[in-house]
Amino acid sequence: MGNKLCVGLVAAMAGGYLLRRQGLRWGATDEEVHKPLPGDGVVPHPMWETTHTVTIDASAEEIWPWLVQMGHYRAGFYADPSWWDKYSDKYLRSLSRKEAEESGYGFREVSSDERIIPEFQHLKEGDTILDGPPGSAFFTVRLMEPNRALTLYSDSHLRFLVPRSIRENPRYGIYGEFTWAFVLEERGEKNTRLIVRTRANQGPRLYRAITMPFILVGGEFFTTRKMLYGIKRRVEDTRAREPVIG
Length: 246
Known about the structure:
This protein is α+β, with helices and mostly antiparallel strands. The chain is built from seven helices and six strands. Strands 1-6-5-4-3-2 form a six-stranded antiparallel beta sheet. The radius of gyration is 19 Å and the shape is globular. The protein starts with a helix and ends in a 5-residue tail after the last helix.
């Protein structure tokens, strides 16, 4: 019985370590993890940082339109729906039902488009990108380098992990900010590395300790990984459907 318990504890610790590692750097090389990227300066001294990467058989110019049109009420975020996405969407709805009804937007189910949408291609620095119904989480565009880098900033997401009675009570001192930087690095003709780096601060310490496992496993490992695969599939499927000239 004791040996089985020890084996179980070791297995759980190993599994936790691997999930945490994958949550911090899925698909990324050591070089990609440690090198500076565009947008790092928006949150210059993060408490934690993650770097995730995928190779896409396409040029940066072909990938860029898919990044520009991301957002709730836009083309989505390409992390095809899972239990995590449905749960977080339902939670955000419960927080912002009144704001959503008054805005005229209503609610949109968690879904992502399979095509490039011309009307969503005119993004610029300073624009707001919703990540849920009005009154809930949103991003601000902080950096744009066409066909190279897009950095989104949020000081709303991390606070929305807890109920309003806690996050709006100054006694608890809940705060949080992070950047989501999408960087395209071409490695050859029709071959591009898409790097997604998150840099974040949040507190106080107890709040950070409680929420970090959910962020790294649910948010970074599952959702960001699914988003990267979603972008890769859409870009490569679109290229495969294009007629060959010559």
